[in-house]
């Protein structure tokens, strides 16, 4: 491990992948939310250079096909398999989990990258507020349903990993309201519905708490991490409905372009680097549950509400109640 380079703000996902090629070799990885011009796509592309298999998911079959083609064009030897997955639908999650479980191929890493960034309040067919469904309920249920498969990939030299792409938005609000009604659906008249960024703040807080709870419950059998990828101009900031919120926060200018005075922006490649670090860097082996920023542990940037194991446990139990089944690790 002493021979590994130092990763930081400017490191790209491809640089991390190349440096950790021996860790990635032979591994099978699942990445959710992989549309072109997004972090998930770049994460999958970089990992595919060295992995045995990368499974990519998305709810739009055509965009998923384009992602597969783009990865294979850039990495001709890549073994990439697409799965249409709508994380807002628990039925879709169950169907995809069943397909994953029927294959004999092991699963070494899950990278929960997908998020609802539409900026529109909506309720799913299951009766859940859509952002929380896509960002937390869906990933929670998917992890639960394929957890035994993930566990089975463990060996003397490898512990499976689960990565949650969160955001610095966890520190930009009052904290997640851990009550059942709010978690399920705060309602069309709620502050979260009127300002989608506040719900995003809650869902990204849920990501961090889920990672913390999973790390604790797994007791060394699985490693879990959450992270802030950085401020990046991805397709997530190009939705018409989300642009006003981002302008009010100063993230975007009046013309919808990145406000360079908001902070230091990363390229998509730099933003995806921390995803690859969380999935494979052996220097994190004894840091399960950690929150990462700029490719390194940064727990001090995690607000108190997202560092509290009692909150992680409460969220876990509330989520079990919402989806109607226990997730026993």
From TrEMBL:
**Gene3D superfamilies named in the record:** NAD(P)-binding Rossmann-like Domain
Cite the entry's keywords alphabetically: Oxidoreductase
**One MF term from GO for this chain?**
oxidoreductase activity
- Record's Pfam families? adh_short
What InterPro entries does the record tag this protein with? NAD(P)-bd_dom_sf, SDR_fam
**Top-level division of the source organism's lineage:** Eukaryota
- Record keyword Oxidoreductase present: yes
Q: Which family does it belong to?
A: Belongs to the short-chain dehydrogenases/reductases (SDR) family.
Q: Write down what this protein is called.
A: Short-chain dehydrogenase/reductase family protein
Species this chain originates from: Mycena chlorophos
């Amino acid at each position: 491990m002493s021979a590994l380079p130092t990763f930081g703000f400017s490191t790209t996902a491809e640089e991390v992948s190349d440096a950790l090629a021996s860790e990635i070799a032979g591994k099978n990885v699942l990445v959710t939310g992989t549309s072109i011009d997004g972090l998930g796509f770049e994460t999958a592309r970089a990992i595919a250079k060295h992995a045995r298999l990368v499974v990519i998911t998305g709810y739009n079959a055509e965009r998923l096909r384009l992602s597969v083609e783009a990865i294979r064009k850039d990495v001709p030897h890549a073994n990439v398999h697409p799965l249409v997955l709508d994380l807002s639908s628990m039925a879709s999650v169950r169907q995809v989990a069943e397909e994953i479980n029927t294959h004999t191929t092991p699963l070494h890493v899950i990278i929960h990258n997908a998020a609802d960034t539409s900026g529109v309040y909506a309720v799913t067919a299951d009766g859940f507020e859509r952002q929380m469904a896509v960002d937390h309920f869906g990933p929670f249920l998917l992890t639960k349903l394929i957890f035994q498969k993930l566990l089975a990939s463990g060996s003397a030299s490898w512990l499976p990993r689960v990565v949650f792409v969160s955001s610095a938005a966890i520190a930009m609000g009052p904290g997640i309201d851990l009550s059942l009604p709010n978690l399920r659906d705060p309602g069309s008249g709620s502050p979260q519905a009127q300002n989608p960024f506040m719900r995003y703040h809650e869902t990204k807080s849920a990501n961090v708490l889920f990672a913390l709870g999973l790390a604790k419950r797994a007791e060394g059998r699985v490693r879990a991490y959450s992270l802030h990828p950085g401020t990046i101009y991805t397709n997530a900031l190009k939705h018409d409905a989300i642009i006003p919120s981002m302008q009010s926060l100063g993230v975007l200018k009046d013309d919808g372009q990145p406000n360079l005075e908001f902070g230091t922006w990363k390229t998509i490649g730099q933003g995806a680097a921390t995803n690859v670090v969380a999935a494979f860097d052996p220097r994190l082996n004894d840091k399960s549950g950690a929150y990462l920023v700029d490719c390194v542990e940064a727990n001090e940037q995690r607000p108190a509400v997202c560092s509290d194991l009692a909150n992680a446990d409460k969220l876990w139990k509330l989520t079990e109640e919402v989806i109607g089944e226990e997730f026993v690790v």
